Amino acid sequence: MVTMRDVAQRAGVSIATVSFVLNDTKPVTAATRRRIEQAMSELGFRRNVVARALASRRTHIIAMAYPALDHKFGFTAAEFFTSAADAARKQDYHLVLWPVGNDGTELTELVGQGLVDGVVLMEVQLDDPRVGILQETGTPFALIGRTTELAGLDHVDIDFDTTVEEAVGYLHGLGHRRLALISGNLKDPVFRTYGPYVRSEAAYRRVAAEYGLETVVLESGGSTRAGQEAAAQLIREHPETTAVLVVNEFAALGVLSGLTRLGHNVPADISVLPLLMSPETAAMSDPELTIMRTPGPELGQLGTEALIRQLEGATPLPPQLIPATLHPAGSTAPPRSPGDR
Amino acid sequence: MVTMRDVAQRAGVSIATVSFVLNDTKPVTAATRRRIEQAMSELGFRRNVVARALASRRTHIIAMAYPALDHKFGFTAAEFFTSAADAARKQDYHLVLWPVGNDGTELTELVGQGLVDGVVLMEVQLDDPRVGILQETGTPFALIGRTTELAGLDHVDIDFDTTVEEAVGYLHGLGHRRLALISGNLKDPVFRTYGPYVRSEAAYRRVAAEYGLETVVLESGGSTRAGQEAAAQLIREHPETTAVLVVNEFAALGVLSGLTRLGHNVPADISVLPLLMSPETAAMSDPELTIMRTPGPELGQLGTEALIRQLEGATPLPPQLIPATLHPAGSTAPPRSPGDR
């Protein structure tokens, strides 16, 4: 059977261009169109009528691809999802959640069926294989997150630089000089190039250096249990620490309860500041956590907006970076000996 | 335009039988088939080729309908969803999450498109309008939950009777005689006939009566904040209470932190036992909560299994009720004066 790839090769164009002509989704110059049509006719390419109808119909359904089996789905993820669903509904679209893996295998099976008009990608990796798959299949998409190569991609993301600057500045202002970061487990292949871990750590190293602080970075899995273990490691290896930043929200809850169980009072002995957390999660802990509040509601809405503008042929949404914002509560305080070095 | 209904009337058969012939989904006797084909020809009935292809094709996608804008999506819901997604994947299906409202309006729009082979319904109400919609549109479905009328419906659910019996029996065995139940807010139209609230309360009233205990029932919204308010109300109106059962997991977290903030030690002054919670949520609190563990992983798997058996024409899964199971931890203990009445 002759495929779009064969047609593209013969005509000397990309598969995407063939798709534009077939589905009439983007304007193509008359010359290119002629070349493609000639290649189709020479190769005997004939699209199945049903497949064409399926491909061209608009379902007004968009999917949020969230790798729920690898990335725990908690309150923060729910904030992204529900705000995206709400934004879609307001524009007469339906949003569904696809719990497909990050490697793109399942995504390939799903986008081929013409079930959705477009995809919002969550939990983006620096070298995300899902991007290539969506491009090859001509599926409109927007990223909540950033790959290394971003040219021409609609995206919105957390502003990790500003977030970490505000967090470190706040702790420094309280008098803390012995900080540590508990980041994610970059040895785990699923998280090796996971944007939030990589970018938070890079920002922390840069900002700590600017303040002339020693950098301490520990890794933790994304669970309460793993956070408790990281807390024990921190106390064992860096007992001088007076404040700790934690990237993963579940690990942060574990760091808090782990420190408490080891007899360390939060915040009197040590301050705990999660870099990405929802107020709902923060309210669960005792003391209530001071947090950098994840801009989940904003980003869910903007990511969906970016995709829908693409689908409707409207002016693209410019890329946006939104910082997490400081919500002071009960897990941070000045150190026992201010300015202790 | 001639419809399937016209054909059914002319042939003197049900619309379903016309559909079986058109889509070749179930065997129909040769005589009936002939009668239907004749009616089609006399009436000039011609199904659009694309519509037919759409209606008959199998997408191998199933949807879990979860009203995420009304029912908070936390760890417990995530357990249902991820175990369902996993079960689907193992049988070569994809599961997506549809955050559609409980009233059925959006569901109607979605099932008409032939995008999914079937639907798993979550957060079922006693008089759930979604059931009628799925029946009318001929969409295969299974319930995780129970409506009042269940005849012929594939369903699995929590065994609330056994769950409450075990919970009350455990607290009674510790010496508690002054129990209270914090249930959901049945005045809120969204939760008025929400199965877990209605069934937990009914079971509690029955079991408490069997033990000869006074019944105290308070209502709470499903949030940490609402749980904190319910805790304050409990202390104000029923200060003699030594143990409290809470249905909603977010309210339960609020009851725990609310009691603590009001100066009541859990479990020394009062025991707290959530009736439906995931271990993940329980581990977040300090002290770690003793819980009745929601059988989310089991029910997500079984609900999906029930639907897929239907889709594959296999033997139906018999209805199953699974109780939550007691996981003792730090929020329950004997009362200060055992047997205090």
From TrEMBL, chains A, B:
SMART domains: HTH_LACI. Signal peptide: none annotated. It comes from the Bacteria. Transmembrane segments: none annotated. SUPFAM superfamilies: lambda repressor-like DNA-binding domains (SSF47413), Periplasmic binding protein-like I (SSF53822). InterPro entries: HTH_LacI, LacI/GalR-like_sensor, Lambda_DNA-bd_dom_sf, Peripla_BP_I. Pfam families: LacI (PF00356), Peripla_BP_3 (PF13377). Keywords: DNA-binding, Transcription, Transcription regulation. Residues 2-56 form the HTH lacI-type domain. One of its GO terms (molecular function) is DNA-binding transcription factor activity. Residues 320-341 are annotated as: Disordered. The keyword Metal-binding does not apply. This is DNA-binding LacI/PurR family transcriptional regulator. It comes from Kribbella caucasensis. The lineage of its organism: Bacteria, Bacillati, Actinomycetota, Actinomycetes, Propionibacteriales.
